Amino acid sequence: MKHLPRRSHRVVLAAVTSALALAGAALVVPSLAQAAASTLGAAAAQSGRYFGTAIAANRLNDSTYSTIAAREFNMITAENEMKPEALQPNRGQFNFSSGDQIYNWATQRGLQVRGHTLAWHAQQPGWMQSLNGSNLRQAMIDHINGVMAHYRGKLAAWDVVNEAFNEDGSRRSSNLQGTGNDWIEVAFRTARAADPSTKLCYNDYNIENWSYGKTQGVYNMIRDFKSRGVPIDCVGLQTHFTGGSSLPGNFQTTLQNFAALGVDVALTEVDVTNSSTSQYAGLTQACLNVPRCIGITVWGVRDSDSWRSNENPLLFDGSGNKKAAYTSVLNALNAATPNPTPTTTATATPTTTPTAGPTTPPPTNGASRIVGNQSGRCIDVPNSSQSNGTRVQLYDCHGQTNQRWTYTSSRQLTVYGSMCLDAAGSGNGSAVQIYSCNGQTNQQWNVNSNGTISGVQSGRCLDVWGTGNGQQVQLYDCNGQANQRFQLVATS
Ligand code: XIL
């Protein structure tokens, strides 16, 4: 076991003290008055959130559709293309063509992707529908492993299990439930092992009303998972408001109560009968009021694209015009307080260093090196590559352009002028790379008063496993330890 020499505690304390002094001075600088953003995605990003939509591959060459989708949203869910029936039409034969079509369309435009969904009673391929018992259990595990291997490190989150509860809070009977009550936790454990970099969500509808039986059933499962260490990072509330189900007065309470279990929450499939402006504004505000509500996704672009098109439930009409509900959502997003508490799935946080509030760093008009406190080495783009997706590493500091970073007023760390330090995912172990700057929250960083640098989207910290040349930089739960502390040092 390695002991820190006593001396280094003093060094750390001195560094923390001076960083705090700087933070105190810098806190005066940020202004709450921001220009109103003109798209849903940009407006949500002001408070560190995303605004997404479901996309259907067969509509992408409709230019009205794809123009709106790319302009307004910064998170994409495949409406059907990543479901089991789409991805594994025959047992053991995966077909990623339409899933990849969505993924490529989104990422080529700098948009992130939520995976939907790995294990569900509906939209199973025919061969899976007819399985049961241990054969089906194995097929579920194989499906999760096959799909997650393909998308490993690429997606912001996966809906691991979808719609597993009845309205009264009991488990829905299905062929999956028939394999044993532990099928959900087996799905989550399998998923974590298959791709540790993506957030793992449970997703369901009619869990918005806190006093409803189904909400309680799901809540109790998440509480149980957290208490037993079953890996789960988030709960998706589908938020389909239709028929008897509309915005409950206690929606924010529900979001808060889930979040208090130590998971992120997200509204994942929003649509509202006739697009009630008050319900749209209210559901948006409920999310904005809960720091761990990380984003909102509507289930389609125009009313004519909706699975409930006769209810006109979306934010754009059939011609692609913005509806009144669009404005009510945009206004709510623009009125939100900037930068909620960064989210993290960390459970235990060492308390040896002060909790870091996001802050602005020392003013730097010019470039800085980013020096690791533990290694003394700099964050470096290997071989001065300018290719999107090049992972950054530690390397001996030499001050050349591939080690010169500029911290901008919009919290980007730019290199070579127009490329940004970029998180390839948001989970533990996600790669940190360079990518063309696109204004998304996975390219925004908080330089914290305790010397850590955390991603606005993930809440996780820049982290290295070691100190040598070539050590890759990744995201990891912030723990304030030396391998997560970096200093911005102005280069002349
Ligand atoms: C729906 C799609 O929108 C339809 O195109 C498809 O025919 C059926 O599935 N809950 C979910 C989504 O989790 O996957 C569903 O999507 C809507 C309800």
Automatic annotation (TrEMBL):
Its EC number is 3.2.1.8. PROSITE patterns: GH10_2 (PS51760), RICIN_B_LECTIN (PS50231). It catalyses: Endohydrolysis of (1->4)-beta-D-xylosidic linkages in xylans. GO terms for molecular function: hydrolase activity. Residues 1-35 form the signal peptide. The keyword Iron does not apply. The keyword Acetylation does not apply. InterPro entries: GH, GH10, GH10_dom, Ricin_B-like_lectins, Ricin_B_lectin. Pfam families: Glyco_hydro_10, Ricin_B_lectin. Residues 335-358 have a biased composition (Low complexity). Residues 335-371 are annotated as: Disordered. Keywords: Carbohydrate metabolism, Glycosidase, Hydrolase, Polysaccharide degradation, Signal, Xylan degradation. Residues 34-332 form the GH10 domain. Belongs to the glycosyl hydrolase 10 (cellulase F) family. This is Beta-xylanase. It comes from Micromonospora tulbaghiae.
